[in-house]
Design a protein that fits this description.
CATH architecture of the largest domain: 3-Layer(aba) Sandwich
CATH class of the largest domain: Alpha Beta
CATH superfamily of the largest domain: Cobalamin-binding domain
Mean pLDDT: 88
Low-confidence stretches: none
Radius of gyration: 22 Å
Order of helices and strands: EHHEEHHHHHHEHEHEHEHEH
Strand order of the largest sheet: 5-4-6-7-8
Distance between the termini: 75 Å
Number of domains: 3
Helix content: 40-55%
Shape: elongated
C-alpha cells in the first residue's frame, strides 16, 4: 500500500502569526521572547509553525481554565523551566534572559531560579542530547547561554557580613561539566560561605594547592556528572585527604549514587543537593 506523501506544515512569519492569534506584532514578539510561543529564525527572520500556534493556544486555555488559582499564583507557578528550555533550544540569549526576568518579576527567588527554572531546563536538554534527539551543538549553545545567565545573576547572591568559612568547589580532572559547580557556588555563597570556585577539569594537585591556602577552608566539594570520571574523582579525593586530613571532602552530582558510593570513593560524605551540602558545612563549622 502506497503511503500518501506528508503534507508540509504551514509556516508563518511573526507578523502573520500575530494576525492568526489576533494580537499586535509586538505582543507576538513578546510571546516569543518569554518562551510562550515557539519560534525559530530563518535568515534573521522569526518563523512560527502551525504546531507552534496550536500549542500556544492549548497552553493559554490550560492556564486560563485553572480558575481556582489566583492570577498572581498562576503567574508564579507558570512553567518557567519549559519556557526557558524552548528559548535555550534555539540559542536565543535575549529571550532566555527575558524568561528569567519574567520569573523574577512574578516573585521567584534567586535560589528558585536556579533550582526550579535553570537547572530543570538544562537537565532536560542534556537528557534529550543523550537520547540522540539533539545535536551536541544545541546542547553546547544552551550551556553557553546558561553560563551567561549565571554571570548576570551571580553578584545578586553575595552575602553581607562575616562569612562562615571558606569552601572550595570544583569538578575533578577530565570532568567538563562546570555549570553545576557554578550554580552550587552561588547558592553556597548565598548561605553565608566564602566560595573558591575552580570550575571544571581541575587536576588533583591543583585542588590540593587551592585548598591549602592560609585561612579557614572547611570543606572541598566535588561535582561529578560523568561516570567515566570516577577514577579521577577517587584520585582527587585521595590526594585531598592525604594532604589535608582535617578538611571535609564531599561528593555530589549525577554520577554519585549516594553516600555509600561517595565513601567507597574515599570521600567523607555525599550531598544530593545544595540543602544537603549546606547542612554538612554547618555540621563541620559548628
Amino acid at each position: 500500500m502506497t503511503r500518501a506523501p506528508a503534507v508540509p506544515e504551514a509556516e508563518f512569519t511573526l507578523h502573520q502569526a500575530a494576525e492568526v492569534l489576533s494580537v499586535h506584532y509586538m505582543t507576538a514578539y513578546r510571546y516569543v521572547r518569554l518562551g510562550l510561543l515557539d519560534a525559530y529564525k530563518v535568515g534573521g527572520t522569526w518563523r512560527v509553525n502551525q504546531s507552534g500556534i496550536d500549542t500556544f493556544r492549548v497552553r493559554a486555555v490550560t492556564e486560563e481554565s485553572n480558575s481556582t488559582t489566583s492570577a498572581s499564583q498562576r503567574k508564579r507557578r507558570a512553567p518557567w523551566a519549559d519556557r526557558l528550555e524552548r528559548r535555550l533550544m534555539v540559542g536565543d540569549l535575549q529571550g532566555s534572559w527575558g524568561v528569567i526576568e519574567a520569573a523574577l518579576a512574578s516573585g521567584a527567588s534567586l535560589d528558585e531560579i536556579y533550582r526550579n527554572v535553570l537547572s530543570p531546563a538544562m537537565v532536560s536538554i542534556g537528557q534529550r542530547w543523550e537520547r540522540g534527539e539533539l545535536d551536541v551543538a544545541v546542547e553546547h549553545a544552551a550551556t553557553v547561554i546558561a553560563m551567561r545567565i549565571i554571570g548576570r545573576l551571580g553578584p545578586r547572591f553575595a552575602h553581607r557580613g562575616r562569612t562562615r568559612g571558606t569552601v572550595v568547589l570544583a569538578a575533578p580532572a577530565h570532568e567538563t561539566h562546570s555549570l553545576p559547580v557554578a550554580m552550587l557556588a552561588d547558592l553556597v555563597r548565598q548561605a553565608g560561605w566564602n566560595v573558591i570556585d575552580l570550575g571544571a577539569d581541575v587536576p588533583a594537585e591543583s585542588l590540593v594547592r587551592a585548598a591549602m591556602i592560609p585561612g579557614d577552608v572547611v570543606a572541598v566539594g566535588l561535582s561529578v556528572s560523568n561516570t567515566d570520571r570516577l577514577d579521577s574523582t577517587a584520585y582527587a579525593v585521595a590526594a585531598l585527604r592525604k594532604s589535608l586530613p582535617g578538611t571535609r571532602v564531599v561528593l555530589g552530582g549525577h554520577a554519585i549514587a549516594g553516600r555509600e558510593h561517595a565513601v567507597a570513593l574515599g570521600a567523607h560524605d555525599f550531598a544530593a543537593d545544595v540543602a544537603g551540602f549546606v547542612l554538612i558545612l554547618e555540621s563541620v563549622g559548628a
